[in-house]
Design goal:
It is a single chain. This protein is of the alpha+beta class. Helices cover about 20% and strands about 35% of the residues. It has 9 helices and 21 strands. The strands form 4 sheets. A 6-stranded mixed sheet has the order 6-7-8-3-9-10, with helices on both faces. Strands 11, 12, 13, 14, 20 and 21 form a 6-stranded antiparallel sheet that branches. A 5-stranded antiparallel sheet has the order 15-19-16-17-18, with no helix packed on it. The longest helix is centred in the middle third of the chain and has 18 residues.
């Protein structure tokens, strides 16, 4: 669980730069706790993502920010004003859902202009703002078309334009790319980030897709079982996860239970359940001798012995048997099994000569001193090995 004060940090710590603040927010449905003590802030002009598997509470949190759900306890502040019990239409936020809900009988111009006209904005200003927003989403020539004449990606951008033209304090996005095919989704990830940068509005993005969150976000809140496990930049979340769940959910991780033997400065000597000792960077943390923690090595840091190490300094090695080799374009996914029965995965490039390691052969895998990271929480011995949520693409 992230400490409340850490979770609240918004870069420069200036409250005037905070758009959204969740103050100890809990949401219950009967006896079921959907969100437990959400306590963090989202900065002005930040692209903030809530990431997690199905049922983790991210969509419920977004719905409370939008006003579609009311917190059981705690407060939600929007630009310093408590909106916990304010209805959605009185909040200065707009929401884009997976279903874009464009009006099929209206032109693109009229779709984007709908909110402005409802607010009685003068016609001349409506035209100016609509055309400016169509320029932002790079569809100025589509103003006279109907939604059914646009592709899925174009409809997505029009839905964004309609939500942004009113200049809300924040735009809430609930799995908006889920209906798109893979290639278009990847293109729209970059487009969304560009649009957010151009308009300078706070974006709060809900997704179960790790690639989306890593590609677009300034910061990510990783959620599980209604709680926030960690909040940080994509680099922090990937390289320095605070829990084994975060390590395994963000990409792929080889996790091994280890016991701390000693610490000298920033070097921690640990003993693995596979036998042998290795030294790992403490990354500024102090560990007591005898502590049970988790050693994480990402697949791109695990290489055959003798191959160039991806990092500085010598680390440790493990002898294992190759169980599968799968070509994945840029890399070959090499899975090995240790004598203790733990399955590990390495991503081998052409320089690692993957063809020289046939299935069934024994090989020694190694990593650099800075290629491993100690996750402060322990895992059970039977949880040792590769942990990945890459195939869990079930929407929350």
């Amino acid at each position: 669980m992230v400490d409340g004060e850490v979770a609240r940090s918004v870069g420069n710590g200036n409250e005037s730069e905070t758009t959204i603040l969740l103050d100890a927010v809990t949401k219950r449905f009967g006896d079921y706790v959907a969100v437990e003590h959400a306590d963090f802030s989202i900065a002005r002009s930040e692209f903030f993502s809530m990431l997690g598997p199905s049922g983790c509470g991210k969509t419920t949190t977004l719905r409370m920010i939008a006003g579609f759900e009311t917190p059981t306890s705690g407060r939600i502040l929007l630009e310093g004003r408590d909106v916990s019990n304010t209805p959605p239409y009185k909040r200065d936020v707009n929401t884009v859902f997976q279903n874009y809900a464009l009006f099929p009988h209206m032109s693109i111009f009229d779709n984007v202009a709908f909110g402005l006209r409802t607010a009685k904005v003068p016609a001349a200003e409506v035209r100016t703002r609509v055309m400016e927003m169509l320029e932002v989403v790079r569809l100025p020539d589509m103003a006279d078309r109907r939604p059914n004449q646009l592709s899925g990606g174009q409809q997505q951008r029009i839905a964004l334009a309609r939500a942004l033209v009113n200049h809300p304090a924040a735009l809430l996005l609930d799995e908006p790319l889920g209906a798109l095919d893979l290639k278009l989704r990847q293109v729209m990830q970059l487009e969304l980030k560009r649009i957010q940068r151009d308009v300078g509005i706070t974006f709060v993005f809900v997704t179960h897709d790790q690639e989306e969150a890593l590609t677009m976000s300034d910061r990510i809140a990783v959620m599980t079982q209604g709680r926030v496990d960690q909040i940080g930049t994509p680099t922090e979340i990937y390289h320095t996860p605070s829990t084994p769940f975060v390590a395994g959910f963000i990409g792929t991780a080889n996790l091994l239970p280890v016991t701390v033997v000693s610490q000298s400065g920033d070097d921690v000597t640990v003993e693995t359940r596979l036998g042998g000792q290795c030294t790992v960077s403490a990354a500024g943390t102090t560990y007591a001798a005898g502590s049970e923690v988790t050693l994480m090595v990402r697949p791109e840091r695990l290489v055959p012995a003798g191959a160039p190490l991806h990092g500085a300094g010598s680390g440790a090695s493990i002898r294992a048997t190759v169980t599968s080799m799968v070509f994945q374009g840029p890399v070959v996914r090499c899975q090995v099994r240790t004598s203790a029965g733990a399955d590990l995965v390495a991503h081998l490039g052409p320089e690692d000569d993957p063809g020289s390691f046939p299935v069934g052969s024994e090989m020694e895998m190694t990593w650099s001193h800075d290629g491993a990271y100690l996750v402060p929480e322990p895992i059970a011995p039977d949880e040792a090995g590769v942990t990945s949520m890459e195939d869990d693409q079930t929407a929350a």
